[in-house]
Amino acid sequence: MLTFTEAQVLAWVTPILWPFIRILALFGSLPVIAQRSVPLRLRIGLAFLIAFCAQATIPPIAPIELASSAGFLAVVQQVLIGVSMGFAVRIVFTAVEFAGEIIGLQMGLNFAAFFNPMTASSDTAVSRFFGVSVAWLFIVTGGHLMLIAAVVQSFNAFPVSSEPFAFLRAVEPHRWGAEIFSLGLWIALPMVAMLLFTNLVLGVISRVAQQMNIFAIGFPITLGVGLIGVMMTLPMMQVPFTMALEKMLAHFQ
After folding, report:
1. Using N-to-C axis directions, what is the helix angle for 238-249 and 69-107, rounded to 10°?
2. Segments in 108-177 forming alpha helices (H)
3. DSSP 115
4. SS3 for 124?
5. What single DSSP character describes residue 194?
6. Is the pTM of the predicted complex or chain greater than 0.90?
7. Residue whose C-alpha is closest to residue 106's, from 185, 210, 216
């Protein structure tokens, strides 16, 4: 008769349980995978598959009794780290969408707002376009592979323990919000400069040829220059996006 003890079961379950919880918490807050269109079963299956395949690189984890305060705190730590990683990636996405908000404001397209069912908020046309583009860029450039490597390496930087708040003191995720504005302005700066120059030219024209209705010709010119600028700068979006993603994931490595 096959018999086994509770300690043996705990030793078998421990190597895959804690990575599974951390990765599942990551997938629950990730911008692309956490959408309502992605089934929950798919997230659970992917989290288990990654946790199982990463066993060769994850350092040994000491068994922790699940029905104890240490086990509860360990679960809290895994959830905090996973959600923080998803939050870090979401900050990069939000910064790109914020750049779209700034560009749309300069172009005069921010009045074209609509309801986004994915985020349950109102988005502008340029911001939504940038958001969809960066979501495709995240997959095409291998951002998901970079994220999987980061979550596996996070077990070396932040091993499983019963001290969840030590991670918060070391990483300080509440300070990451400033990255939205710095990265967004950095991405939108070329377009803002181009549209500012266009407005200066239109201002000079209105002073030189006062018989022209600058309000009638200014909007289509600004809109056309903005669309051309978006087409020119969109292929260069990969560099700031990849740099920002690597910078945010470096906190967990």
Report:
1. 160
2. 125-140, 143-157, 164-171
3. E
4. strand
5. H
6. no
7. 185
d(CA 2, CA 134): 53
Q: Which long-range contacts (CB under 8 A, 24 or more apart) does 138-144 make?
A: 138/31, 138/32, 138/89, 138/93, 138/241, 138/245, 139/32, 141/238, 141/241, 141/242, 143/89, 143/242, 143/245, 144/32
With tokens 């390496």, the residue in question is: 153
Q: Residue 175's closest CA among 87, 97, 234?
A: 87
What's the Cα-to-Cα distance from 70 to each of 5, 83, 104, rounded to whole Å? Answer: 20, 20, 50
Within 39-142, residue ranges assigned H as helices are 40-53, 69-107, 125-140
Token pair, residue 177, equals 């919000």
Query: Tens digit of pLDDT per residue, the chain (253 long)?
Result: 566 666 666 667 777 888 888 888 888 888 878 777 778 888 888 888 888 888 888 888 777 777 778 778 888 888 888 888 888 888 888 888 888 888 888 887 767 666 665 556 677 778 888 888 888 888 888 888 888 888 888 888 888 877 777 777 778 777 787 788 888 888 888 888 888 888 888 878 777 777 777 677 777 888 888 888 888 888 888 888 888 888 888 888 7
Cα–chain center distance at 143: 10
| Cα separation, 220 vs 35, whole angstroms | 36
Among 151, 198, 182, which Cα is nearest to 27's? 151
Cα–Cα distance list, 47 to 18, 23, 50, 148, 196 (Å): 11, 5, 5, 10, 47
